Amino acid sequence: MEFKKITLSDRDILIPFLQTENELTCELSFVNLLLWQPLYNNCYCVEDGILYLKSYDTNITTYGLPFGDMQKGMARIIEHSGTPYPYIWAQEGPRFREFIKLYGKFYDIIESRNEFDYIYNSTDLITLSGKKYHSKRNHISSFSKQCNWHYEDINDSNIDKVRHCANLWYSQNADRMDEELKNEMAGITLMLDNMEFLQIKGGVIVIDNNVVAFTLGSKINKNIYNIHIEKALSGYDTAYTVINREFATRHAVGYRYINREDDLGIEGLRKSKLSYKPEIILPKYICAKKENL
């Protein structure tokens, strides 16, 4: 097996595999695999009609579940890894359930709570209707009273202002800049430079001709839309609620779900994602050889 790192040019190879899976995880988004490649060394191999994904760092190599024949794919992963029980990174869904049925007796299944995806009914985030979203509607009303704002899709006329907003956001958060945020910052540039090729949509909130909040998203498959990035400048925290709704209203119609990704174990971010009342909190797992096997 020959693995190669995921690049822009691999879009047309990977998307047919990724978008045919009836799964909800953001990790079946080509944009995500590309965006986080530098940090997690995301690689792929296609062999005999099966797609294999692999990630690694200095401590551990993990394989994704194969896309295609599970038994044939696992046999090749075992052969390639040189161990009968390679580490498997998996997300709740049809492939994981098949893996458990075939190989669960050999593995300890360890939840990785900080990486769970938050998945919402798209209609909920579009309408914000009902008692459970009363506070969100109040946030938008308050923001509208305080600020003369309007929404725009990202286009050639405002993309430089989006770049400026992004740079300003990372400057405002320089005290917590780690490798993950550095990778995210580079990923925003990658997405803005390749929006049409990657089929990414974006939106902004504008006040006094300046972008104070922006978001970027793309589809995972025909059933679910993925929000990759959402940022609002310091002093405009309520703009998160506004752009969430405005973008969903324009770009998530027709999808059953919206995936707003994980919370990274950040307490404030977890609280915020829970406040939008997710329909599904999608588990992810590291699968390791059973200690008592």
Comma- or semicolon-separated keywords:
293 residues, alpha+beta, Aminopeptidase, 7-stranded mixed β-sheet, 26% strand, globular
Task: Give a short summary of the structure.
The protein is α+β, with helices and mostly antiparallel strands. It has helices spanning 11-18, 30-35, 37-40, 70-81, 94-103, 122-127, 134-146, 159-172, 179-193, 195-198, 239-251, 267-275; strands at 4-5, 43-47, 50-56, 61-64, 88-91, 107-111, 117-121, 149-153, 201-207, 210-221, 224-232, 257-259, 280-282, 284-289.
SSE diagram, text form:
Layout: E1 4-5, H1 11-18, H2 30-35, H3 37-40, E2 43-47, E3 50-56, E4 61-64, H4 70-81, E5 88-91, H5 94-103, E6 107-111, E7 117-121, H6 122-127, H7 134-146, E8 149-153, H8 159-172, H9 179-193, H10 195-198, E9 201-207, E10 210-221, E11 224-232, H11 239-251, E12 257-259, H12 267-275, E13 280-282, E14 284-289
Parallel strand pairs: 4-5, 11-12
Antiparallel strand pairs: 1-2, 2-3, 3-4, 5-14, 6-14, 7-12, 7-13, 8-9, 9-10, 10-11
Helix pairs in contact: 8-9
